[in-house]
Amino acid sequence: MPDAVHRQVEAVNTAFYEAIENADLDSMLDLWVDDPGVVCVHPGALPVRGPGPVSRSWAVVMAHTSYIQFFLTDVEVAVHGEAASVTCTENVLTGDERTGPEEFGGGKAVATNVFLRTPDGWRLWLHHASPVLAAADGDR
Amino acid sequence: MPDAVHRQVEAVNTAFYEAIENADLDSMLDLWVDDPGVVCVHPGALPVRGPGPVSRSWAVVMAHTSYIQFFLTDVEVAVHGEAASVTCTENVLTGDERTGPEEFGGGKAVATNVFLRTPDGWRLWLHHASPVLAAADGDR
């Protein structure tokens, strides 16, 4: 049962993916908590920690991606006090300088995005995306 | 500069990995927030959500692992209000029913563990572990 808070969190989550799609680094950075503890794990990579490294990692992603589009599925929002999480499957369509207009890559990742409530609204504190290698186990 | 709160969080994080090593499901379950929003992403898998599915997923992991040992490296604790995160590299040594005493598997994963402050102390709210596929990029 989505309530107003869930919708606020999901809107910030959507804005996060739109910032990547639009290669809009300023909008991306505005979405993060101003906190030394921010962490970002890009798929298959080691953690990037702190505002400077996290910002630069997104600048690199945006500089190396000429086209990217996210189709989010299985989006679930959870809120507990001042913290919120969004877990979702990122179905990704990409193109880069090596692909022509008819050639796109694709992929699937699972993301957990953790948001904290701030005076300016919900802001991203942690992003962890990982490749999906296996089918879900018997628990799902 | 680790302070008392950081040490409390890191102690719960350590207890989490000890519970897996000891196949101690009761201790594992005691470490989680009693909240419908708990989420667990096992390496390469889709999210498992909610206390029942998360509990069962650990029961399955423990039932299928005869030996597992974690060597944690690059452990970083961040605290913001009532939320805390631990990011670390899980260097894993495993054996199962197929491996003899001289044969072990191994692997490396990156984990983000998010804890919330509760009346009973810091408790796990979200665990996301993912395989490390690539070297760190230029941002590190």
Q: In the CATH classification, which architecture of chain A applies? A: Roll
Classified by CATH, the class of chain A is: Alpha Beta
Give the helix proportion of chain A (percent range).
25-40%
Q: Uncertain regions of chain A: pLDDT < 50 for 5+ in a row?
A: 136-140
- Rg of chain A, rounded, reads 15 Å
CATH level 3 topology of chain A:
Nuclear Transport Factor 2, Chain: A
Description:
Two copies of one chain form a homodimer. Chain A has a six-stranded mixed beta sheet, with helices on one face. Chain A has a single domain (4-131), classed as Roll (Nuclear Transport Factor 2, Chain: A), CATH 3.10.450. With 140 residues, chain A is an alpha+beta fold. The first copy, chain A, contains three helices and six strands. The two termini of chain A are 20 Å apart. In chain A, a hairpin with a 2-residue loop joins strand 3 and strand 4.
Features:
homodimer, 140 residues, alpha+beta, Nuclear Transport Factor 2, Chain: A, six-stranded mixed beta sheet, 3 helices, 41% strand, disordered C terminus
Brief digest:
Two copies of one chain form a homodimer. With 140 residues, chain A is α+β, with helices and mostly antiparallel strands.
